[in-house]
Write a structure and sequence with these properties.
about 170 residues; mainly alpha; Globin-like; about 80% helix
């Protein structure tokens, strides 16, 4: 982990959130319907978790945010691709700010450091996206199990074998 990258992300935290607040709702319709204060709060938590993942390599902080998002976003009919699209926009926004930061540096090592920072931000976003998919899958599996448990309970309650009924939805 590059301490300079951590300091950069901390210094530009508010700017990153503001840029994401402009970019995400324009690109992902589901987020354009979300109240601005709710979107900002979500992005702040996501960015904190993203930075934690980048620094420590651990997903715990981000996983807490993703568990909440899985419940709330699923209830609001968000698609998995909506969340993945938002997470994968982090490196796009950070790349632009890094380019501005490194533009004036004439150090021979600047290009290497810039490329290294890009690689770290992109790999962190991909790890975050994979983590969200795992957590969302866990959420869906839990909901299916709850549904199946409910059906089993109703079956016992009414003495009906619901496994014989197959419902097809066109």
């Amino acid at each position: 982990m590059n301490i300079q990258l951590f300091n950069f992300l901390e210094d530009y935290n508010d700017q990153i959130v503001n840029l994401l607040m402009g970019k995400i709702p324009r690109s992902i319709t589901a987020y354009s319907k979300m109240p601005r204060t709710e979107l900002k709060q979500m992005l702040e938590h996501l960015l904190d978790g993203y930075i934690d993942l980048l620094v420590t390599g651990q997903t715990e902080a981000l996983d807490k945010v993703f568990r909440y998002m899985s419940r709330v976003h699923a209830a609001k009919k968000f698609k998995v691709s909506d969340v993945l699209g938002a997470v994968l926009m982090f490196p796009q926004v950070i790349r632009r700010l890094l380019a501005e930061e490194y533009a004036d540096i004439r150090d021979e090592d600047a290009i290497r450091k810039f490329n290294q920072a890009l690689e770290q931000t992109e790999s962190t976003a991909h790890r975050a996206a994979c983590s969200f998919v795992d957590i969302f899958q866990e959420h869906v599996s839990k909901r299916i199990q709850e549904h199946n448990d409910y059906l089993d309970e109703q079956q016992k309650k009414f003495g009906i074998d619901l496994s014989r009924f197959i419902v097809f939805k066109a």
